[in-house]
Design brief:
about 210 residues; alpha+beta
Length: about 210
């Protein structure tokens, strides 16, 4: 992981709970930050890291309650993407990475990018982004194939239309929110996606 150039980096050792971690002391004009930086920041749990750094994470409503807050998060996320374009920072490490990259001076740190697409790019880079785009392309191709196969009428057709509209709205919402990271919403998304690619029973017998 490449660190922002404005930071001066020194290396030391942190002893905590009988475990030693390699850490970096990052110095800027505002304060010194001790950050556990072993293997893309994945060896130290977020809650322990925040305790070490004496910062509080922001929840979704606090961090992204305004458009200005979201724009700030997106700008910082793009900096992560530029610094780690190939492999990202690692899945589920966005909140940890923002300890370094967040430029806003709020009460805490963003835990989500408030844009699922940017967060995938930041955490997974091209390594995750390319398979995701390929899977999305196959999914859209299958939906189009189902429309061509089935008659344009009947309950199956209109259920599929409703499912596709729902998927489009979810995709638009993901530009501003992170609702698919919530298990309940993700389960409903999977159900709607299944309805969109469902094959009519009579076509299976053909």
């Amino acid at each position: 992981m490449n660190l922002p150039k404005r930071f001066k980096v020194t290396v030391g050792t942190l002893h905590r709970k009988n475990v030693s971690y390699t850490v970096c002391t990052l110095l800027d004009e505002r304060k010194a930050v001790a950050l556990a930086a072993q293997i893309h920041l994945t060896r130290v749990p977020n809650d322990q890291l925040y305790e070490i750094l004496s910062v509080e994470p922001l929840n979704g409503s606090e961090a992204g309650s305004s458009l200005g807050g979201r724009i700030g998060a997106w700008r910082d996320t793009l900096r992560i993407v530029r610094d780690s374009p190939y492999t990202g920072t690692g899945l589920n490490t966005f909140g940890t990475a923002m300890v370094l990259y967040q430029t806003g001076t709020g009460l805490g740190r963003f835990q989500e990018a408030h844009n699922d697409y940017l967060q995938i790019a930041a955490e997974g880079g091209l390594l995750i982004g390319i398979p995701v785009l390929f899977t999305l392309g196959v999914f859209v191709w299958n939906i189009r194939r189902r429309f061509h196969q089935a008659p344009k009428g009947g309950s199956t057709y209109w259920i599929r239309i409703g499912a596709v509209i729902g998927l489009i709205l979810i995709a638009l919402q993901s530009l501003l929110e992170f609702s698919l990271q919530m298990p309940g919403n993700a389960a409903l998304f999977a159900l709607v996606a299944a309805l969109a690619v469902h094959q009519s029973p009579h076509l299976r017998r053909l």
